[in-house]
């Protein structure tokens, strides 16, 4: 049963707890303390007995009559509703999904609360997994057949009532779906554990964005910007080639508005002098730029002549090319008489309130939040300070800004149905089960499921993003070191589960 109510009481509860901790300077209980052991015993009774075996009487006896249960998906419940939900849902007698809760090791923190020096309550924070197993009535719960389906955070307020510990407030939040059994560790959930892991891998800073239900639900930033300065959640990163999806979506939005043509020759608006007399010039289109079929090298500077040329006929092969995106930029700017950064601001940055995103280096950048880039020996690179926008490289952004951008793309905001379908279609194969669409790589996951992705790599930059449009999930990983890709695998597996393993399998074939 859901109760429609204001969340004002929840805010009061949270603020009250924070104020108490601040005023009293409360530190968490040590694991060997009597209070820690007592609360963990209550936790075990509540979940290992009450929840996992559906012994409702145990759960009921542990809850205060004034119980308030705040759930980020089901609203506010009282004790009567809580017990009724267990009886009619989780513990209903016919064939149903049985559930099991498992506390994540090392995630629990317990804080004592005092009044006039007398202990009266304890706040328990933690993270737990939930498993499901479909069984028939009378059949045993088979752990080997269960499936990990979710993870969530919780805060429990235990209060002494008549010298007995009762659960008076429950906050259940940050629910995230999962796809397989994740690694059982505190990594990514415990800051100290994650910082230690990053130090072992010589990664100065790691940023993670988690998307679920088509929205950016969480931003995590670990590591240091410099000695003794922790990286804030709104750290500013150079994300290298993650600039290309922004340029692509600017163009796709213009196509959706009928102001640009996907298959019109770019020579109508721009011709590079290096290829002015090449017969392939008229074949160059936006479609081939966004799917990396231009025939151009990645950069003309890689050529001995330092001039732009075609390595093959456009539309016949795949060749990743930053030059193609720069060619598109010049064509767009010629037609619309605006710079790419102006177009990006109008079509993406301003509507999505991406206030920390820009294509041109300026005094507006908050250098105190900027993640310097490093080689794998710990030497810093000088920041790239573009005076004009580069369509393929050097976007400055935050996890939050880029996460909101990906959500808008996944939700097809500003893109017509036809253009969105073109974007996610297999324009060209790059390897088995992997393709390029328009602006994004596509992983074929089987069963008609797919993931959209793009990466960025430059001096001191390793970044990658994934979107799962069918399940509305996504993952963002930013690092600021030459070999930051070393932490991709574990991060992808942790947050994307079986789908992450499938992506890694495709990539490593």
Automatic annotation (TrEMBL):
The keyword Glycoprotein does not apply. Pfam families: Beta-lactamase (PF00144). InterPro entries: Beta-lactam-related (IPR001466), Beta-lactam/transpept-like (IPR012338), Diverse_Enzym_Activities (IPR050789). Keywords: Hydrolase. It comes from the Bacteria. The keyword Hydrolase applies. GO terms for molecular function: hydrolase activity. Gene3D superfamilies: DD-peptidase/beta-lactamase superfamily. Residues 199-484 form the Beta-lactamase-related domain. This is Serine hydrolase. It comes from Flavobacterium quisquiliarum.
